[in-house]
Amino acid sequence: MPRGRYSLHDPHDHAPLGDEHFHCAPGPSGWRYVSQITTPSGDHSGSVDLALDELGRPIRLQLHAASWQIRGAALDGVTWVRTDPTGTHATEGNVRAHAFTGTSPAFLVATARLLRLTPGSPATRVRLVAFTDPVLAPRTLDQSWALVNSEAHATDNGPLTVDEYQVSALDTGEQHTIHLAGDVVLSAPGIELEDLESPPSVLP
């Protein structure tokens, strides 16, 4: 069960946004990721709880940020309920999309798991619902994902396969590269892996 810490920063000006303390593991139904998010000063600022089925679809998502809350799942596309800090107003949303995304590294692993790309295969288009900080406002976006390289690296615990993805935002044309090893993000815009207590899990 990988357990560790990511540092989060603004991908444009590199201002620190805080840390995400996480653990994740494959399970009988798929994969689960749980994390607590702290501000740069160390105060608690949110949490992520994401569970995927064996096909990589989100069967349960719970997000908390600035007292806002999201509960979502793959249902007629993706469906969610967003609750305000007072708990008195809840709005439901539904979009014909494949999955969710957001600032958490969990969503990069989840999208890669959903797409199951192979090196050299054509780029695949995916529609996602992003929940943007700090109030978890939903926004639908389209991305293109391509697995450009998959390379095994020798480690003390045996070979570790690192996958390099090129991700393009189809509305702006902006491209960026992410590196994944199993169910851990090694590097991505705005994300740095700072600490890892055990090796990544190899997802089937």
Task: Give the key terms.
204 residues, mainly beta, 15-stranded mixed β-sheet, Glycolipid-binding domain-containing protein
Topology order in helix (H) and strand (E) letters? EEEEEEEEEHEEEEEE
Structural class: mainly beta
| Number of separate helices | 1
Low-confidence stretches: none
Q: How are the strands of the biggest sheet laid out side by side? A: 8-7-6-5-4-3-2-1-15-14-13-12-11-10-9
Q: Termini, distance in Å?
A: 15 Å
The gyration radius over C-alpha positions equals 16 Å
Count the strands? 15
Q: Which percent range describes the beta-strand content?
A: over 45%
Give the CA-based shape: globular
| Number of structurally distinct domains | 1
Task: Report the mean per-residue pLDDT as an integer.
Answer: 94
Organism: Streptomyces scopuliridis RB72
Protein name: Glycolipid-binding domain-containing protein
